[in-house]
């Protein structure tokens, strides 16, 4: 007899994700699920978004990590509500975890919630959290072959941020090939080349984020 555990887990998660989505829509809040491998620059990308927003849209951040509070403390230092979720070993966040985090946020005072998912290119793409949009970060240092290796991740997002482009002269990264494969996997995805350290693409990223949040209100 076969027991399809994965199917049952996803069905339960999807039900909770729908509840999260309805809750956010009721309060007019957009939620963006930011996914990437470890070291791609998720926290830096969020910090650039906070700086660019300057309070409009009003945002909060949910930080997902296996352990530690380093990232959430960095966000709190910018006077932004930040909630830390430590999964204790799990490679992704779940809708139940996000639902619990939303209990601790004043949704009436917010326009946008950014989730920094656990650093992983596999599991997070499979779990609906109730988000409005999904964003994938792929850094130059990781190589241009990531879309080949993790196609589901690239198919499931509305935007792909190619981070750390300032490292391009020092890395064997074929931008044309990367864009070609992403375009084949997900023709509708917005692709933004950016460098959080030098500011390239940051304005475009902030514009995309503001445009994603604006229609919700």
Q: Which parts are unreliable, with pLDDT below 50 for 5 consecutive residues or more? A: none
Cα distance spanning the termini = 49 Å
Question: What percent of residues are in strands?
Answer: 15-25%
Summed up, the helix count is 8
One letter per element, helices H and strands E, the order comes to HEHEHEHEEHHEHEH
Tell me the CATH architecture.
3-Layer(aba) Sandwich
Q: Pairing-aware structural class of the strands and helices?
A: alpha/beta
- What is the strand tally? 7
What general outline do the C-alpha atoms trace? globular
Radius of gyration: 17 Å
- Our count of domains comes out at 1
Helix content: 25-40%
Describe the structure.
With 217 residues, the chain is an alpha/beta fold. The chain has one domain (5-216): P-loop containing nucleotide triphosphate hydrolases (Rossmann fold, 3-Layer(aba) Sandwich), CATH 3.40.50. The chain contains eight helices and seven strands; from the N terminus they run αβαβαβαββααβαβα. Strands 3-2-4-1-5-6-7 form a seven-stranded parallel sheet, with helices on both faces. Helix 1 (5-27) packs parallel to helix 4 and helix 2 (42-53) packs across helix 8.
Short synopsis of the structure:
The chain has 217 residues and is α/β, with parallel strands linked by helices.
């Amino acid at each position: 007899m076969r027991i399809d555990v994965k199917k049952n887990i996803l069905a339960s998660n999807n039900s909770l994700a729908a509840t999260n989505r309805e809750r956010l829509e009721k309060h007019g809040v957009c939620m963006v699920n930011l996914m990437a491998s470890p070291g791609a620059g998720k926290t830096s990308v969020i910090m650039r978004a906070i700086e660019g927003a300057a309070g409009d849209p009003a945002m909060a951040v949910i930080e997902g990590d296996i352990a530690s509070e380093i990232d959430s403390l960095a966000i709190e230092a910018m006077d932004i509500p930040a909630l830390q979720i430590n999964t204790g070993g799990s490679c992704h966040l779940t809708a139940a975890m996000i639902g619990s985090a939303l209990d601790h946020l004043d949704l009436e005072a917010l326009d946008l919630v950014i989730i920094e998912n656990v650093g992983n290119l596999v599991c997070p793409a499979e779990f609906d959290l109730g988000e409005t949009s999904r964003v994938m970060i792929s850094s130059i240092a990781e190589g241009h072959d990531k879309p080949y290796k993790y196609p589901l991740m690239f198919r499931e997002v509305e935007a792909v941020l190619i981070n750390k482009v300032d490292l391009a002269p020092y890395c064997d990264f074929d931008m044309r090939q990367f864009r070609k494969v992403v375009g084949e996997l997900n023709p509708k995805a917005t692709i933004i080349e950016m460098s959080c350290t030098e500011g390239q693409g940051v304005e475009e990223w902030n514009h995309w984020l503001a445009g994603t949040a604006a229609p919700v209100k």
